[in-house]
Amino acid sequence: MSTTGYAYANTLSIYLAMTSTYEPFHKRIRIYFNVITQLVKIFWVG
């Protein structure tokens, strides 16, 4: 895993932790799905 990928994943986890407190559930699911998609791309490419 590249350093960029790690930093990106770390930033996303912080973002999720911040938003999960007030985001509605269905919106959170969409965010999680987008995050997983991005991480898969990072792992696949990197």
From TrEMBL:
It comes from the Bacteria. This is Uncharacterized protein. It comes from Nostoc sphaeroides CCNUC1.
